[in-house]
Amino acid sequence: MRFFILTAVHFLIFLCSCAAIWLIWKQFKKWQFKNQPFPTEWNEILNTNLPIYSKLPQPLRQQLDHKVKYFIRDKTFYGCDGLVVTDEIRVTIAGQACLLLLNRPTNHYYKLHHILVYPSSFVASRSEQNESGVVSHKRTGMLGESWSQGKVILSWDDVIKGANNFSDGQNVVLHEFAHQLDQESGSTNGAPLLGTQSSYQSWAKVLSKEFETLQRQTNSGYGSLIDQYGATNPAEFFAVVTETFFERPVQLRHRHPELFEEMKLFYAVDPTEWVD
Ligand SMILES: [Zn+2]
Predict the structure, then answer these.
(1) C-alpha 211 to ligand 1 mean position (Å)
(2) How confident is the model at residue 24 (pLDDT cuts 50, 70, 90)?
(3) How many angstroms does the Cα of residue 143 sit away from the middle of ligand 1?
(4) Res. 133: pLDDT tops 80
(5) Residues 120-142, mean pLDDT to the nearest whole number
């Protein structure tokens, strides 16, 4: 009997030791990854492909590097239509996607797992049903798509165009990843996770008013700073305003000050500080 008790105790000690070693090993790997320097080649890619990167204040640039490292470790990239995924593709996409995470307590788009990249715009099939119940199928050319089931699809041609020109208010990566943030709340409705009840009230008041204004302008054929695609629905409005906030912040602050403040509070950065 004593032999069996001793054996059981030894076995328990052995199991505890294994668990402790495993935990220490895990902590060590975490520490090692966190302290791994940002690869010089990745730095060069960001400097070349994403001119806004060199304009970021140093602490934000360091934060972006850190978040890009985690993003590339945690998300799987797939090349479509024969595209071979390279570091240039990974880093250029991650660099823009992580701009939306700066100063926020996360390194993740936690619902996102896969990023599919096409060489250029891709064709997607869509089913639509009209009021009479007739279902039609459309094949539409797309620059990007964000799915709630952990997937983003992008056209590489348009990713690189958006990264190079960071002042036209058009950026497919910012757009699709804003949808990912929106989807984190459980429904894609233009209201991402905001925290307090007063934040939701203020967000709803300002964004609803601005969305209706954009719809009116679009219907009457007036031009606007915010791309008219934002008038499609509240989810597209949030994604389009995200593009404007990061790419044309001075104009947005001047022409839509309340909307600018809401976006600044949500994204926890002020892009007017980075532009010339
Ligand atoms: Zn969209």
Answers:
(1) 15
(2) confident
(3) 10
(4) no
(5) 71
Determine the distance separating the centroid of ligand 1 and the alpha carbon of 234, expressed in angstroms.
Answer: 10
Q: Tell me the CA–centroid distance for residue 145 and ligand 1, in Å.
A: 7
| CA of residue 241 to ligand 1 center, whole Å | 11
Distance (Å) from CA 221 to ligand 1 centroid = 21
Res 160 pLDDT > 80: yes
User: Could you tell me the distance, in angstroms and rounded to a whole number, from the CA of residue 243 to the centre of ligand 1?
Assistant: 11
- Ligand 1 mean position, distance from CA 176 (Å): 6
Asked if pLDDT for residue 99 goes beyond 80, the answer is yes
User: For the chain, what is the largest distance between any 2 Cα atoms, rounded to a whole number of angstroms?
Assistant: 90
- pLDDT digit string, tens, across residues 190-212: 999 998 999 999 999 999 999 99
Architecture of the domain defined by 185-276 = 3-Layer(aba) Sandwich (3.40)
User: 236 alpha carbon to ligand 1 midpoint, in Å?
Assistant: 5
Give the integer Cα–Cα distance in Å for 181 and 204. Answer: 16
Domain boundaries, the chain: 36-128+135-164, 185-276
The reported pLDDT for the residue numbered 130 is: 64
C-alpha of residue 68 to centroid of ligand 1, in Å? 23
In CATH terms, 36-128+135-164 corresponds, of 1.10.472.150, 3.20.170.40, 2.102.10.10, 1.10.760.10, to 1.10.472.150
**pLDDT of 128 above 90:** no
Sheet containing 151-155: give its strands across: 76-79, 114-118, 151-155, 144-147
Distance of alpha carbon 87 from alpha carbon 229, whole angstroms: 32
Binned at pLDDT 50, 70 and 90, residue 10 comes out as confident
